[in-house]
Structure prediction request, 315 residues.
Amino acid sequence: MTSDSTEHSNGANGESQLIRRVHRELIDDYDEELEMERDDWEKLGPDAPLQPLAHDSDREQRNHYFKELFRLQGELVKMHDWIVESGHRLVIVCEGRDAAGKGGVIKRITQRLNPRVARVAALPAPSSREKTQWYFQRYVAHLPAAGEMVLFDRSWYNRAGVERVMGFCTDGEYEEFFRSVPDFEQMLIRSGIQLIKYWFSIPDEEQEFRFRCRINDPLKQWKLSPMDLESRKRWELYTKAKEVMFERTHLPESPWWVVQGADKKKARLNCIHHLLSQVKYSEVKHEPVTLPPRIHHPDYRREPLRPEMVVPEIY
Prediction:
């Protein structure tokens, strides 16, 4: 074999190896999503490992779901680039019953985005000091600057929901919230913030099913709080509180959008598709990136690692 043919063969092998490495990298990336889809796996026996559902119809639906999810997430990246480039400010409010799928949708929206640009605000119960502040004050601190989007995993609408149902606010505070929230949201909009409000809706029996799944799944038991169990007993009171909230805060400038969440996968796709339709973004053209060559210095020496510093390679 001539030197030219040898060089060509080596080059072809190197390119083939690179393609395989890129392919493995993509699979690893998609596996991250598969790990999050644990709910759709099944056990064939008490001691058998979890494995993906094998039914042809299920497999076809899953393939369609992932195809659409990755396509929509590609559009979210374009929207993310446009937000940064244009200095747009976006607030997405995610409300709904416990186990309605808010967290799952938020994860899929932010999964491929820069966390410095796409932030999630999931505030705990207010401290004793925060309870003495203007009600909206602790939420204002999390509003976006130019080129940012913030997703509120529950929001100032806690007062219209859990606080009302559980008796954590007085009747006067409840009424003051409804007097103030239109002005508050209009101030945000006048300042240039785009506000989108989603309510995730699930049927009674679906919430019960998801709660029972959490009770029996050690990886998800942390999601089931005493407040969740109490909310289960007060289903009808939450329904009434939601209806009052819609009646008094479904405003022309900041309407509510209801996501039907009985099917989690459809809810994720529908919500992301709708979100993309609400933001008038355009694709940002980027200059081609050229990886600079590594600079080599003849006197460079890498110091050996001390063995006790290395993490044991168990796997």
Q: What stands out?
A: The chain has a mean pLDDT of 89.
